[in-house]
Amino acid sequence: MSENKEEKKTQAPPKPWLLKKVDAINEAIDENRNVKEIGDLFEELLEGLTSERYNFNDPEGKKYSEYLEIKRKPIGYIFFCKCLKIVIGINKENSYSQNLSKELWTRWGNYRLRKTINNLKEVDDFVSFLFQFLRPTVIQNLYEAVEKLEWNFDKLHRVLGEIYRNNPNILENVATILEKVDVKSWLLANCGKSLRAQAEILRIKPDLKKEVKEELEEDTLKPFERKVEAAQEDIAESVENAQKTITNLKESTERKLRDSEARFIQVIGIFAAIIAFIVTIVPTAVRLGGASIPIALAGLAIVTAGIVILLAMIFGKDERRKSLSKGLTGIIIAFTLWLTLTVVLAFVEPNVLRPPPDPVRVDTLYIHTVETTPPPTPSIKEGD
Q1: Burial of 9 by CB count in 10 Å (0-12 exposed, 13-18 middle, 19+ buried)?
Q2: What span, in angstroms and rounded, lies between the C-alpha atoms of 124 and 143?
Q3: Which residue, 75, 104, 197, 198, is most buried by CB atoms nearer than 10 A?
């Protein structure tokens, strides 16, 4: 039973569609069949060629690829050998081979005229792959044979060179074909060299992109890493500064508390001085009475205003202290003038500052002795 299973595994599956068509063309060439009959087979291949069949991704192609992997024969190598066999049949220098190359070229051109660009990639790749292996003499004869046809070598360069400008495989195939007509047309040969250079650029472009990308990443990452390091240093410095700021705030708060306590003590002392001044000055003003009362009250008002301004300077904002200092200066000048006026009045008009007489109590009997002068005694004349 195990031997039967192994035989089934090693049994060859049906060939893929593409290999069958290539084998049919090779068989017809080997038998020297009519050129048009081979052309029909070639056109059938072009008509049925799809991306899946060309890359052996169709069901038959996948099974046959797995079978060849067991045999250690890649399917691409098998396909390449079968295509070279077609080339060998065309490469012979005889009229049959020349007619056959022209027939295949013409069928290719007619097929391209009937199809859209979207259906031509696999066909153009396959046919240009075949023709690039033809000998220079065969290519030159073909150049002359198809020069007046609609699909000629000039059209090959202009059309495929434009359509597949980003496909290095087809560009290289077309470049090889055009380079072989250098004897007949040096211009097309130079165009072929230009297409080859273009294909080489396309092949090395991914590597260049990779190298440039790596260099750019390296050039980009290094500054970024430096920025990260700088940012980390800035963060550490910011944390340190924040800690210092917190410490300074604590010290400042404690200092302000101490200053507030000191200012509170100062305020208490100032209020004590105000109370003492009022207790002293008011009875004095009442004692003086009369014209001395306004003078005493004026002095009290000046001192009180000065104390208010002094408190505002102590507890007020810094920007207002300058204006308040001017007011305090004015209060000091006013107090000086008041004191000077009081001293001057004390010497010039003492009655102004003299206290009033003691009031008379109504409930107390006061006896005032009044000296009276007796009326004069009438004189007695002598003789009366």
Answers
A1: exposed
A2: 18
A3: 104
